[in-house]
Amino acid sequence: MLFLKKFIILVLIGFAAWEYYSSDADYSSNAVVVSPGTNQQRDEIHHQKKTPNFRCDGREHCSQMTSRAEAVFFIKHCPNTKMDGVRDGIPCENDSRF
Questions:
Q1: What is the C-alpha end-to-end distance of the chain, expressed in Å?
Q2: What percent of the chain lies above the pLDDT cut of 70?
Q3: How far apart are CA 71 and CA 65, in angstroms?
Q4: Taking the model in full, what pTM does it have?
């Protein structure tokens, strides 16, 4: 009888351990490890998900933009833009269309 009790306890402990480690493995396979210094990468990924697919195509002026989001993309990523006269990061401040 004592042998049966010990056997059942060992089986229950083994099952509990298997459950614990197998569920932990499921979480770790989906885990994303972020090391220090990757804030820029996270911001770029977040920006790509949030921003429509804009691309630099030579436009430089507010009158050529279709939205403020597009103008912001252009001043951050494209050369020779002329949309941020005071250089404060806010393009087309005087454009009433946006």
A1: 82
A2: 68
A3: 6
A4: 0.47
